[in-house]
Amino acid sequence: MKEKNMDLNLGTSLPIMEHFYTIQGEGRHTGTAAYFIRIGGCDVGCHWCDVKESWDPNLHPVSSAEEIACLAASHSKTIVLTGGEPLMWNLNPITRQLKDLGCTIHIETSGAYPLSGEIDWICLSPKKTSLPVQEVYDRAHELKVIVFNQHDFLFAEEQAEKTNDKAVLYLQPEWSNREKMTPKIIDYVMKNPKWHISLQTHKYLNIP
Ligand code: SF4
Fold first, then answer.
1. Can you give the three-state secondary structure of 33-63, one letter per residue?
2. At the top level of CATH, which class does the domain 2-205 belong to?
């Protein structure tokens, strides 16, 4: 048990919920084939979260970061680290291994924890319940705000203010409320064209 915790602290092992080769459905890299590694553990607590099974890291097998990296790199050179909240963990070992194998590494994060590891593309999706740390605002390549209700447009503007000005800005309808919010997002983006629409195209395509 002590050894297991030490490996988790070092990042040489991680609680891996699932890993799979698919098509990135959201944001800047929509339509791109990528290998997803979903790391368990999240304490951000979004009420509309569609991966609540990821929250408790103890439910997911502790796996060797090196083995997962090798498996992922054998399928794709584009890797997406997602969760849960992947920055709850030390990502130095897994990203070092992936880099050695020639991979480009993307991360999907709420930004609630400091960055670790060597990341090529940071997708910041901030949440009201646990706001990002400044470092992630400063280094994000895309800002993707999930729109569940009208107030989220205001939240999106506040978050864009805090994010570096090179980041690409996306508004994405929360899936369960998409019929109501998608027309409002279309209207908002036409009035405020610095924003782009992101859709969860993998859900329309019925792929993971
Ligand atoms: Fe779910 Fe992501 Fe929110 Fe965590 S940050 S609760 S994984 S939507």
1. EEEEEEECCCCCCCCCCCCHHHCCHHHCCEE
2. alpha beta
